[in-house]
Each structure stands twice: as C-alpha cells, then as structure tokens.
Amino acid sequence: MSKIDYFTSVLKDYGVREEWKKTPVKAHIYCGRHDAQCLHVFSEEVADLIPNGSLTTFEYSNHNPDIEEEEKFKILLKSTISRA
Question: What is the pTM of this model?
C-alpha cells in the first residue's frame, strides 16, 4: 500500500508528455493489445507524441509478446535490427 500512496501523492503531477513531443530519438514502441501492466492506449499515446515514434501491436498478447507471439516478435526484432 505504501507504493500506491507514493504514486498517488508524490507523483500525481509528474508528466513527460511535453518532453516526448520534443525528443529527437527514434523510438519504436511495441505492446500487446491486452497488456494489463501498460495499457495499449498508453503505448499508442507515446508513439503518437514522439515525432519519430512508431508502434507495433501484438494482437494476441498481454505483457509478453516475445513469448505469446514469438514468431511475430522475432520478425519485429529482425526488421528493427536491419534498419539500425
């Protein structure tokens, strides 16, 4: 409970959305459609806010697409590495 109290009191006004809009970093976000730890809607928001951001959605995954959709994840890794 102390962790929840910390996040709701100390960090309630913490936000980085405006900084994301200015970052020159090329970022590729990936997320499971059914992710319970970091909801898909937040991954969409991050990818939209970062000027050089993109998003890959794993339609049949929760928080571990590397296990839940292993073949699609391997394809993502190979394509990401080849572009680097």
Answer: 0.81
